[in-house]
Amino acid sequence: MVTIRDVAAAAGVSPMSVSNALSGRRPVSPRTRDAVLHAADALGYQINTAARSLRQGRTGVVGVAVPTLSSQYYSSLCARLVRGFAEVGLAAVVEDTGATWERQSAVFRDSRLAAYDGMVIAPIGLSEAELRAFAGRLPLVVLGEQQLHRTVDRVGMANREGAVAATRLLLARGARRLAFVGSPSLDDLDRPGAAAEAAIPEGAAFVERARGFRDAAREVPGTTTTSLYDGADLAGGARCAAALLARDPRVDGVLCATDTLALGLLRGFADAGVRVPHDVRVIGFDDVEEARYAVPSLSTVDPGHDAVVRATVELLVHRITDPGAPHRDVVGPARVVERESTGP
Length: 344
Fold this sequence. Notes:
The protein is α/β, with parallel strands linked by helices. Among the domains are: 1-45, Orthogonal Bundle (434 Repressor (Amino-terminal Domain)); 159-303 and 337-342, Rossmann fold. Helices cover 42% and strands 15% of the residues. The protein has a six-stranded parallel beta sheet with strand order 2-1-3-4-5-11, with helices on both faces. Strands 7-6-8-9 form a four-stranded parallel beta sheet, sandwiched between helices. The termini are far apart.
């Protein structure tokens, strides 16, 4: 059986450094953390989650850690998860990690492990090795992109597919001068490290939505595209409206990476006297409740909220009761919801 001392010897550090790197109790240097994670992975080191459960017992509480609660999407998702876990007899505690490594790793410190039976996390900037190490300490379900998290239980959204469908709707409505409001820029999509989108709370989802937009736009010859981003909140969307009109006053179709950005964009266009959908058609992503009450009501992509929540609850409950079960990967369905902002 591989022990923490074996990992320390392989990594060339002390057992205490290994403990700190894997638990997040105390900060270690990135070099030390990488060495420890590499050694633990190479040796197959795993903390015995079942034994920990037997020692501590069950609390009936699970954690939900998201990058931000100021996002309409994440706040809505957390509310749905709280209700979903309540239906199976579990209380959910929501934590805002601020998308920082320190606050995300703090979720898995020993002081928290005793409080939770399991954890759901939407990670930003965490490596697969780090998540695998965290999963060894606590039953874990990751909300994120498959290419980043392949060896833990994962629930994702059809981000690229949803963006493709949304862009095709704009094209079907006759739009040919398209814009994507989100990050990274279209020019940066193929740059090595473009998926290092850790600076924004939506992370890799934005990257996949940008790729879907670009790929769908290329399907129709003569279509021009541009992209811009000035923050993930409503104000950022409004600022992008002004910047977009200055860049291309004839833009006639916009996909926003989130409904929050799209709602801000609607405000910005209205302030500039630009009519939606008469002058420009707009579609968002996430299908937040506010989208249906906007003026005009906002077309959007429904990423399968109910399916995502249901799968997340089922996976975590299964991982808690059967820690050794094979890892599973689930992707929620995406569908376009057309409303007034892209209407004929």
